């Protein structure tokens, strides 16, 4: 009889033990499901690089299910930017974040807003910007190109205002589908960011990358876009600006001859001009520069960033 009860007790013990193990597995299963659902419902915000050099561009990614109208504000610049849908990915968005040459060793606060479940939510994130190791160079040009008379000052101010009106016009449509290319493949004669000393007077920094180019060298478009400017200017000489959409612009200066017109659509690799030595120059070359959401940035670093999207 005692053996009978012992056997029952033993069987019950193992039965309860199995039930307990099954209950634990069921609980773990439901916890995993709940965590998965919560993760899917969560909104994530992150940079492709959260620490960059001044005048470089980074990408801010936003992942979230059922979010609408995602936007951001770069607080210190008061720049408002719309997010763009990431190709081939659901519920994923990106925005290009430019930093100025004068953003040195600082944290830039970015506020992101979006609508979810009829409520407007906000998130903030910080971008670390450190000083780049830019060089310095001395350039000797005609004094008339450094010390401007009233007529020249009036012209440069008008040209600057015209250019900024272009750069401040953000189109949401992405006009390119392939990777960006360089406008020509020759040695670089002056890097972006180099401090420029004209006739022993510091006049800022080099706003683009200079490529060696004899007069008449063919210059191609870095990518698909629309020509928004093709004219002669005081500093840049014969200049072309191409709008690639989503706030991205590439610029081609000191040209000899235009092969495109304003409002003309151009294709990646299309010949748009012949190089020259017009404007404030010491010799023939191509000055290639870029803007993102109106901010002047390193064009070669921008191309690398865009080509990784």
From TrEMBL:
Organism encoding this protein: Malaciobacter molluscorum LMG 25693
Protein name: Peptidase M23
Domain M23ase beta-sheet core: 205-299
The keyword Signal belongs to this UniProt entry's keyword annotation: yes
Coiled coil regions, renumbered to chain: none
Pfam families assigned to the protein according to its UniProt record, in alphabetical order: Peptidase_M23 (PF01551)
InterPro entries (alphabetical): Cell_wall_metabolism_enzyme, Dup_hybrid_motif, M23ase_b-sheet_dom
Keyword match Lyase: no
Source taxon at top rank: Bacteria
Protein keywords: Signal
Single Gene Ontology MF annotation: metalloendopeptidase activity
